[in-house]
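Researcher: Please generate the 3D structure of the following complex. Treat every line as part of one assembly.
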Amino acid sequence: MEEKIKQKEQLLLQGNVACARGALAAGLDFFAGYPITPSTEIAEYLARHLPKYGGKFIQMEDEIASMAAVIGASIAGAKAMTATSGPGFSLMQENIGYAYMAEVPSVVVNVQRGGPSTGLPTKVSQSDTMQARWGTHGDYNSITLAPSSVRECFDLTVRAMNLAEKYRTPVVVLMDEVLGHMREKVTLPQPDEIKVINRWKPTVPPEWYQHFEINPHYVSPMAIFGEGYRFNVTGLTHDPLGFPTARSKEIKDKLDKLRNKIEHNVNDIVQVKEEFMEDATCAIFAYGSAARSARQAIRMARQKRIKVGLIQPFTVWPFPEVYMEHMSERLDMILVVELNQGQLVNEVMRTNCGKTRIRKLNRYDGEIITPDEIFHKLREVR
Amino acid sequence: MEHHKKHIELEDIYEIRLSGSGGQGLVFAGTVLAEAIGIYDGKNVAQTQSYGPEARGGASRSDLVVSKGEIYYPKATKLDLLLALTQEACDQYSLALKEDGILIVDSTLVDQLPLREVLGFPFTQVAKDELKTPIVANIVALGTICALTKIVSKDSLIQVVRKRAPKGTEELNQKALQLGFELARKRKKKDR
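Model: Done. Output below.
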């Protein structure tokens, strides 16, 4: 029995554990965190297993310190991650901003629960969607991925680690309570099926090295601290060497670089999953666990011959603008379903520019929206 | 309507809710049942949990959705099987049962029953009497569910309980499972 199971590799895994395993598969070296429901199982799993892979696990005194430790570890060459939920995500924002400014590869998993403040520790929510985009102050561009199944928790954590390294930036994995705690049967990919991206290292002699070099890729090679390449790291706006600057051109160059490394690579970063869209005249736009209810609602509607499809953005940020502009032209109606009072719907409306009808359906009482609710709304607004 | 069914497998869904209060091990029982059904019996399964912020006390439940096809919405809505280990859980969820759904309650803790067919078993009392601890009442109940409903095979459940039981409690949990089987067997005899 045991043998047979191993071959098939079928496992009953929780979303949180799949996320932790995804991080390990992508080469995680370092985790610092502070336990918080509903993300705790990620830390628990990594506390047990990360050391076996030669990595380091630290439970810090709070989330502020956790993010600081992640930044330090990453600058020292480690692939680093933390996991938290809303209240911890808020505490981390100052240092997440530092990571954007200092261009430090790092992954922050937010298993969302109800807010604001301590809110609903054990209840589902998607109300941190905008915080993932604009959580810290200043101009910057965020990469945020939202899975909707246990397998996607694995895959998108791998992807988050890869994107963080590739673009030298924090990447947010936006999960939620239902997903984090849900157990499903999954088959995970073999190590040789997983593409792992490592950060771009400098090839120039140390005296030529610029830690924040401006180049056509908008991403600078990153030396490991202590390997002989000298550089300065600061949260102050800095020149290519990392020293604080007040020169207008250097300030603008830096901020353009932060934006352009994401905006010029949207085709590489943005992923949207479609279902039943070939002949669809209207669509449900949903992400995270709400997309699960949408999937079932769409099947109920198809039984009634309603030509509806699913648009599920794996990348919530950057928002799939070009794709949605195209869909606005093609579709009669888009129903945006979220477990919040309406956040990403504003982006859908922005890219829509009045081209088609946008309707929204929101639930924010701590429960996941049901397929019936979506189906009835769909019948009403289509 | 017939041809639509081919298109989509929304039928054939079996929904289970294990409910009670925090500390009764309902999430653990749900995980064990999900693994037995999903990995060992080979059906599709999604298991979720719902509980309050307290470590003990407060309402707690674990939902399982079992299907031959894909499972999208992971919570149970129209219950085929409800296990209620507290009066509160019985009151709150028995209305969510389908007409032909099965209601199993812990008769040690639930005495006000809804107006429908109810299968009562003294899970907690039996665990206390036979094994000197009420904490394995969840596993006793799993044994009874298994023997009564056939939603999970005995072999699978025995294996998963062995594998998932915390170190040092393997034997205790196996005994609890056997007690559960026994309770169902006695009931069947009585029915005859």
